[in-house]
Amino acid sequence: MTYESYLAGEPVVVTAALTGGVHGKEANSNLPETPEEIGKAAAAAEAAGAAVVHLHARTPNGERSFATERFQEIDDAVRRYADDVIIQHSTGGTGAPDEDRHLPLRTDPPPEMASLDMGPLNRYDHLTSENTRALVDSLHEEMRERGIKPELEVFNDGHLNEVYGLLERRELADPVYATLIFGGGTLTRPRPRNFLNAIDNLPDGAQFNTLGFGPHQLPFAAMGVVFGGHVRVGLEDNVYYRRGELAESNAQLVERTVRVAEELGREVATPSQARDVLGL
C-alpha cells in the first residue's frame, strides 16, 4: 500500500478503539467501560463510519479483564446495538499469564479479528509486556484454528523484523494486516520520516493500519489516509479532541477522521467492503 493506493481510490478502513485496558473514566468520563456502554459506543462509531471496533474487556470495577465470559457480554451488547460492524478483540496485556491471553479468542462466535502484539514493550516504570515468540506463535495458531484474522501490532522497528520472522515460521492468510504504532516509550518515535520508513519496510502486499497515540492521532490518521493505509482512532489511544478539550465520544473522533478522508477524496469502507479489503 502506497501513495498509488490513495490515487487509485481504494477505500480506507476506519477502526475505533473504544475503551482500552489502561486509563478509564478518570481520564475521560465519556470512555465506555461496561458491556452496555461499549455496545452503544460501537453502534455510534459504526454510524459515524467505523467498520471495525477494537475491544478490550473490563471487570465491573473498571480493571482490565481477559475473561472469555466478559468478552462474550461485550460482543453480545455490540451485536445487539450495532448493525454489521467487525469485532476485533485485544489479546494484548502486561503481566498476564500466557493462558489468559488466549481467553479473548474463545467467545461464541469468535471475533472476526484479534490483535497480535509482535514483541516486547515496556509499560510504566517496572512492567514489560514480554510477548515472546512462543506466545505469538501459540496465539496465531489458535486464531488460525478459529478462523480469526490476526491484526499484527507493530510498536517499533524491531517488531517489523518480528513480522518477517512470523511469516517464516507460520503461514498467514493474505493480506498480512499490520498496525503501525507511533508514540512515546518503546513505540516508534512519531515522526513523518519514521512513518514512511515503516510502510516502505512492510512485506510485499501487506495492508497497514495507522495508529498515533495522544496528540499524534489526527496527523498520523491523515498520513495513513494519504499513503493508502487504514486508520485507527478512539478513546483507548487519545482522550482529547483538541488540546485542552476532552473528546465527547469515540464517534466524535471517527467523524473527524471520516471528514478528513472524504476531503482527501478517499471512500470510507463499510463493514462489508472492509471484509473484502482485509480478506475476512
Automatic annotation (TrEMBL):
InterPro entries: Aldolase_TIM, BKACE. Its cofactor is Zn(2+). GO terms for molecular function: metal ion binding; transferase activity. It comes from the Archaea. Gene3D superfamilies: Aldolase class I. Keywords: Metal-binding, Transferase, Zinc. PANTHER family: 3-KETO-5-AMINOHEXANOATE CLEAVAGE ENZYME, 3-KETO-5-AMINOHEXANOATE CLEAVAGE ENZYME-RELATED. This is 3-keto-5-aminohexanoate cleavage protein.
